[in-house]
Amino acid sequence: MLTLNKRAVYISVIFAAIATQQSGISQIDSLTTKSTPLPPIKSKTANWAEKVSIRGYMQTRYNRLFETNGQLKCEQCDRSWGKDGGFFIRRMRIIFYGQVSKQVYFYIQPDFASSAGTTGHVAQLRDAYLDLGFDEKNEFRLRIGQSKVPFGFENMQSSQNRLPLDRNDALNSAVTNERDLGAFFYWAPSKTRKLFSELVRDGLKGSGDYGVFALGAYNGQTANQTERNNTPHVVGRLSYPFTIGKQIIEPGIQAYTGKFVLLSTNSKTKKNATSEYLDQRTAASFILYPKPFGIQAEYNVGTGPEFNKVTDSIENRRLKGGYVTLSYLIKGKSQTLIPFVRFQGYEGGKKHEIDARSYNIREFEIGAEWQPGANFELVCMYTFSDRRFEDYTLQNNRQRGSLLRIQAQINF
């Protein structure tokens, strides 16, 4: 039988346990008069800030070294080319993104280095979209908002990852700034989605995850422009990366069709009554990822609005062009060097420029990207260019020359 003192101790322990349970502490480690408080129970609902990530990058350029022709310019590429150009912030972007629930992902990217007339460093929206998954693995998903149009591998490749300083004229003229407002359906097996992510993460210059199959509709007037007719553009793409030994190859095909309404024209330029023109293209892509030797090649054909200096009018005309980039990846313990060369050519109009400016381009570039660490990149690239670009004001305008271009990039 228990002695009186022992009974008192046990009664005290029982009351302590009852008091502990009522106060929210879940257990007592042992039958002792001493208790160690447990940490507070965390809420099962995560704070919204825990689901949002922030990253970004900034690119600063100088294009005037060893320049041979100040009239050689590229409005679509880099507005600091040529006469009166100088040090230039090409991009200053901060990206907000997060998987806010199992099936919902968001991505918002403003650029603080856009321009408005003669004013630079203006904030402008680049991306603002959500991905809605239809299955547990999000292999089937719908992207809604302003985002990149799935046309052309280099168009979808981030400027943070691309080797040449500017995208090629041939395919980038299809969608200036690569983006538009619309809805795009993407499908890719989870294994392939993981590979898409690894190709970017491992420094192999991937395009990111735009699915094995893509189908969508978008306004067709390019990013940050309102719709101007009742005819959305329709785009489709099929691209599949696969391995052969240690090599990774990604072939792809894509096409779009729609009607484009001209954005700006000279008052004396002749055009049709609606300023609306057929706009359609088909393109093929071939990517051999640099392990260590790489090839990136694309070519497109189609029809679109183009200025004709013979008639001083804008007409639907055939277009064609593409590029080939060769690279070699050299990795050290903490540094990476990627020498590259690119040749590009394009014949056709640029619908988003004044008078759907007519172009004939032949260009060769040789350079290298140096990464002393994950947070800094330096690109030096020598460009040899032959460009004919004509509108109502600029007629018989052919400019040839060369220049050394330098870009410093910080990643954070």
Short descriptors:
mainly beta; 2 domains; 16-stranded antiparallel barrel; 18 strands; disordered N terminus
Q: Can you tell me about this structure?
A:
- The chain has 412 residues and is mainly beta.
- 9% of the residues lie in helices and 51% in strands.
- The protein has a 16-stranded antiparallel beta barrel.
- A hairpin with a 4-residue loop joins strand 11 and strand 12 (293-308).
- The radius of gyration is 28 Å and the shape is globular.
- The termini are far apart.
Indicate the topology.
Blueprint: H1 4-22, E1 53-65, E2 88-101, E3 104-116, E4 119-133, E5 140-148, H2 153-156, H3 169-172, E6 179-187, H4 190-201, E7 213-218, E8 233-239, E9 242-244, E10 247-261, E11 276-288, E12 293-308, E13 313-328, E14 330-331, E15 336-349, E16 358-373, E17 376-390, E18 398-411
Antiparallel strand pairs: 1-2, 1-18, 2-3, 3-4, 4-5, 5-6, 6-7, 7-8, 8-10, 9-10, 10-11, 11-12, 12-13, 13-15, 14-15, 15-16, 16-17, 17-18
> What spatial form do the alpha-carbon principal axes imply?
globular
The count of DSSP E runs of length 2 or more, i.e. the number of strands, is 18
Q: Structural class, from helix and strand content?
A: mainly beta
Question: Could you report the average pLDDT, rounded to the nearest whole number?
Answer: 91
Would you give the CATH topology of the largest domain?
Porin
- What's the tally of helices? 4
Instruction: Point out poorly predicted stretches.
Output: 1-11, 13-35
Question: H/E series, N to C?
Answer: HEEEEEHHEHEEEEEEEEEEEE
How many distinct domains?
2
The biggest beta sheet reads: 16 strands, antiparallel, barrel
CATH C-level category of the largest domain: Mainly Beta
Proportion of β residues? over 45%
CATH architecture designation of the largest domain: Beta Barrel
* Physical arrangement of strands within the biggest beta sheet: 1-2-3-4-5-6-7-8-10-11-12-13-15-16-17-18
Q: Please identify which CATH superfamily of the largest domain we are dealing with.
A: Porin
